[in-house]
Each structure stands twice: as C-alpha cells, then as structure tokens.
Design brief:
This protein is mostly helical and about 90 residues long. It is built from one helix and no strands. The chain has one helix at about 1-40. It is flat. The N and C termini lie far apart (about 85 Å). The model has no long low-confidence stretch (mean pLDDT about 80). InterPro entries: DUF4834.
Length: about 90
C-alpha cells in the first residue's frame, strides 16, 4: 500500500509540475521550427508586420489619388406594387 501511494504521489507530481514545462518547451520548439520553414519557403517572417510601400511624397497637399474604384452594382428596377383587392373585415361570432 505504501509503495502504491509513493508511486501515485510521484506520478501526480510529474503530471502537475514537470509535464506542463515539458509541453511548453516542445510547443515553442515546434513553432520556431515551423517559422523557420515558412521563412525559407516564402522569404518572410510571419510574425513581422509587412513593410509599407514607399509613397510618392512629391504629391501636393489636398490632392487625392484613388488606386481602385469598385464597379457600381447595376440597380434592378423596383417592381411597383399596386396593392391588392380590399376585403372588408367581418367579425365572426
């Protein structure tokens, strides 16, 4: 009985304190390895913000440059509802 309790206590300590540290280390190592693979494949760091492209600084203040104007959807003609036939309400008892 004492042997069982000692083994149970040791296993619970390992599960409680050692396993989370080990799992955290493994996950960090895995993420770093995947980041290196991604940067080798695509040539960029996925956790780094993309660098903005340099803009034309020679434009005068107050001028607006639009790169893309989305096409306007074609308006469907609204169907005019003339109304239905009027039916007088009768209360049925």
């Amino acid at each position: 009985m004492v042997k069982f309790l000692l083994i149970f206590f040791l296993v619970s300590l390992v599960l409680r304190f050692v396993l989370p540290v080990l799992m955290r280390w493994l996950v960090v190592r895995f993420v770093k390895k995947q980041t290196q693979r991604y940067s080798q494949q695509f040539g960029a760091n996925p956790f780094e913000a993309p660098r903005p492209e340099p803009r034309n600084t020679a434009a005068a203040n107050g001028q607006v440059h639009v790169d893309y104007v989305p096409p306007k959807p074609q308006a469907k003609p609204a169907k005019h509802f003339e109304g239905g036939e009027y039916v007088d309400f009768e209360e049925v008892k």
